[in-house]
Automatic annotation (TrEMBL):
Keyword terms of this UniProt record: DNA-binding, Transcription, Transcription regulation
Protein name: DNA-binding FadR family transcriptional regulator
Keyword Transcription: yes
Organism lineage: Bacteria, Bacillati, Actinomycetota, Actinomycetes, Propionibacteriales
One annotated GO molecular function: DNA binding
One Pfam family linked to the record: GntR
Highest taxon above the source species: Bacteria
InterPro entries reported in the protein's UniProt record: GntR_C, TF_FadR/GntR_C, Tscrpt_reg_HTH_GntR, WH-like_DNA-bd_sf, WH_DNA-bd_sf
HTH gntR-type domain residues: 22-92
Length: 278
């Protein structure tokens, strides 16, 4: 009977109505997405209640909720279930790109050394871009200097100094001044940071890296800061590359062929998105 009537027994709708339902949902999602991306609906704000927002589009509740599910899958909103309900807007950041990239690479069976090699191409470019910023003395150098000083203060704690070292690298990318490069390199930094943090947390007792060696690494950070402050892009690029090759050796030597883990990618995304461990 369902077949004769041309109706899907699961949805109760005919193929034609299914197409119309999907198109309406896509149209609503397209409009809301545009409003989110141009800033009409800013980060961390709550969307109007469903009834109010749905009335603007004149669509059914199932159609509207399908549009919201599309936006949630894209990382643009979080739908809150339960008594509170509603949806919260998110501005897309490098972490969202990292999540998608990480899942894609995990699906291809890529190991973390592949990410390390990619970083050796893009992070030095970010360091050079930092050195070319006219406002580097006000915007870049103070941030890097503060992170460097914090790392020196906790050099005896492998986990703490590794965390601050990763923040230093992420800041170079974030402050390079080129949004496209920052987004691309930031996604790679996020993937590497999740790997290096896991390495530091698992090996603080079993792996002996003397504080003197850690200070040597931090000394490379200091020289990189100086080259950026001097506006020497070539030196900044060269120092960043040599430092990456050297510093990446610790976790890759310990775990030479570690595949990118979907669970780790998701845990990192949750931690950076919510501020709490995944």
């Amino acid at each position: 009977m369902w077949k004769e009537a041309g109706i899907n027994p699961q949805s109760g709708r005919s193929p034609a109505s299914n197409v119309r339902f999907a198109r309406l949902a896509e149209q609503v999602a397209d409009d809301l997405r545009s409003r989110l991306l141009v800033g009409d609906l800013v980060d961390a704000t709550e969307l109007p209640i469903e009834e109010s927002l749905r009335s603007q589009y004149g669509v059914s509740k199932p159609t509207f909720r399908e549009a919201m599910r599309v936006l949630e899958a894209e990382g643009l909103i979080t739908i809150r279930r339960g008594a509170i309900g509603g949806a919260v807007v998110h501005r897309l950041e490098a972490e969202h790109v990292a999540y998608t990239l990480g899942m894609a690479l995990a699906g291809r069976g890529v190991d973390i050394s592949d990410v390390a090699q990619a970083l050796q191409e893009v992070e030095p470019a970010c360091a050079a871009a930092c050195a070319l910023r006219a406002d580097r003395a006000q915007v870049v150098v103070p941030v890097l200097t503060e992170l460097h000083e914090q790392a020196v203060a906790v050099v005896d704690n492998l986990v703490a100094v590794t965390t601050l070292s990763r923040k230093f690298h992420e800041a170079i990318v974030d402050l390079c001044g080129n949004q496209s490069l920052s987004m691309l390199a930031g996604a790679l930094e996020s993937l590497w940071s999740s790997h290096e943090s896991a390495w530091a947390n698992r090996r603080p007792e079993g792996l002996d890296i003397p504080p003197s060696e850690r200070l040597d690494v931090l000394g490379e950070h200091r020289r990189l800061i100086d080259s950026i402050a001097d506006g020497d892009a070539d030196a900044a690029r060269s120092l960043a590359l040599r430092h990456l090759i050297s510093s990446q050796n610790y976790p890759t030597a310990e775990w030479p062929e570690v595949l990118i883990s979907p669970a780790s990618v998701r845990a990192r995304f949750i931690e950076t998105s919510t501020g709490s461990p995944g």
